[in-house]
Amino acid sequence: MEASAVLKGQPIYRRARAVGINPNYWYPIFWADQVRSGEVVSAQIWDTSLAVYRDAQGIVHTVEDACPHKGVELHRGEVHGNNLVCPYHGWEFDSQGSCVGIPYFPKEQKLPCAQARTYPTQEAYGIIWVFPGAVELAEQHPLPEVPQYGQPGWFMVRIPGHFQAHFSICNENTMDVFHGFLHKDLQGWYDPKLLNLKQDDHGVAADYQVSYDGFLSKLLGLGKKGSDSATRTVSIRYRYPHYATALESVSSLYLMRLPVGPQETKSFSLLFLKLPLPQWLLSGPLARVLEKVILNTVFIKFLHQDVEMMESEQRNYSIDPKRNYVEVNPAIIALQRVIVGQYENLEKLPKSQQETSKESPIPPSQEVSNGMLV
Ligand code: FES
Ligand SMILES: [Fe+2]
User: Fold this and answer.
1) Is 135 a residue whose pLDDT tops 70?
2) β-strand 92-93 against 155-163: which pairing, if any?
3) Is the pLDDT reported for residue 213 higher than 90?
4) What pLDDT, in 10s, does the model give residues 168-193?
5) What is the DSSP letter of 74?
6) Rounded mean pLDDT, 270-299
7) Fold of 32-135
8) Which of 33, 67, 124, 360 is the most exposed place for a label (fewest CB within 10 A)?
9) pLDDT tens-digit map of 231-277
């Protein structure tokens, strides 16, 4: 993407809105149960179109969504056994993307050398992941760790998100604990303070102190007996390009980000709660019903409020990308630095140096009051 080169020397927030992704990471593209055996579907990672199919053995594969013959979208094709067949002339491609059959060729005729690009693909945590970058780096870059997944004592709620906004806007929303005002009708949280902040080339670690005094406090069992109010520490860890956040040992949220395009982003979130409910309800056949109830009665409402803000921010950015803004949370500035650095360093560094990391002290020389830049 050319834009970031043009924007060098501009404020960091403006550069963050214009950058593309570093493709050398695993990105989530579907919940595992969205792609059934024998099914092929389309997906998009930062304007790269993909055809994703699950073969007869249940293994998921990803190929570029363009047939090497004439460019027809392969996601319109059919799955035959372990192969994908183009809908136009019926050319058949194996899981390595090689053409292994043309229906109108006599058996003895040599097949042309036609190769579709394939992408490393894996399933973990009930999510299908694709590595859109340099294939040789896929094994060096592990998936995010989700230690609570499948562990007894934790109740998992899957939260899908879809936003018409650049991924930097979405990521800033997750890092921004100071927007409790938006959720006041839902009795979210109040009185946030930024306690600690660290940044390096790969991510941002921020700890906030937050108070709860309502529905969330009750749901999570935060308050002491006879009181619903509680003050806790929320730890937010952004490790490019995903998030792991924790409310002490009470809940954890793993937010996996999929940048679809310059103004479209998805998220696949796994929220783990310790609910004060009986075990038969948390792990029995009613668990999936309970997941839907918690999702729809609580967290989707929060998410909808956030979506409105993010999309509103994007609309004004799109109308006037040169408008100036005032950011006072050093954690947001740190996040913008990581997002910009991951993209710009990818362009200028040779591959061997892409893994280097250097500490950058945050906050810089600015005076800080209550965790805010002044
Ligand atoms: S375009 Fe795919 S087989 Fe011809
Ligand atoms: Fe929010």
Assistant:
1) yes
2) unpaired
3) no
4) 999 999 999 999 999 988 877 889 99
5) G
6) 89
7) Rieske Iron-sulfur Protein (2.102.10)
8) 33
9) 999 999 999 999 999 999 889 999 999 999 999 999 999 999 998 88
| Residue 70 Cα: closest atom of ligand 1 | 1
**What is the 8-class DSSP label of residue 10?**
S
Instruction: Provide the CATH topology of domain 155-353.
Output: Naphthalene 1,2-dioxygenase Alpha Subunit; Chain A, domain 1 (3.90.380)
Identify the helix (H) or strand (E) that includes residue 335: helix 330-348
SS (H, E, C) 110-147: CCCCCECCEECEEEECCEEEECCCCHHHCCCCCCCCCC
Q: Are 313 and 176 in contact (CB under 8 A)?
A: no
- Classify strands 127-130 and 27-31 as parallel, antiparallel or unpaired: antiparallel
Mutation test of ligand 1: which of 64, 86, 93, 111 has the most ligand atoms closer than 8 Å to its C-beta? 86
DSSP letter at 72 equals -
Ligand 1 atom closest to Cα of 89?
3
Task: Kindly list the protein residues whose Cβ atom lies closer than 6 A to any atom of ligand 1.
Answer: 67, 69-70, 72, 86, 88-89, 91
> Residues 122-145: what's their mean pLDDT?
96
Nearest to 158 by CA among 129, 123, 126, 122: 126
Closest-lying ligand to the alpha carbon of 105?
1
pLDDT at 354 over 60: no
- What does the buried/exposed string (b/e) look like for 172-189 if buried means 16 or more CB atoms within 10 Å of the residue's CB? bbbbbbbbbebbeebbbb
- Peptide linkage before 363 cis (omega within 30 of 0): yes
Cα separation values, 185 from 210, 216, 298, 352, Å: 17, 12, 12, 50
Residues carrying CATH 3.90.380.10, the chain: 155-353
The protein residue whose alpha carbon is closest to atom 1 in ligand 1 is 70
Counting from 1 in the atom list of ligand 1, the atom nearest the Cα of 86 is: 2
Give the H or E element holding residue 3.
Answer: helix 3-6
Which pLDDT score is estimated for 374?
A: 40
| Whole-number average pLDDT of the chain | 89
Strand order in the sheet with 203-212: 155-163, 264-273, 251-261, 242-247, 230-239, 203-212, 190-200
Any residues with CB less than 8 A from the CB of 271 and at least 6 apart, and which? 156, 157, 158, 159, 251, 252, 253, 254, 299
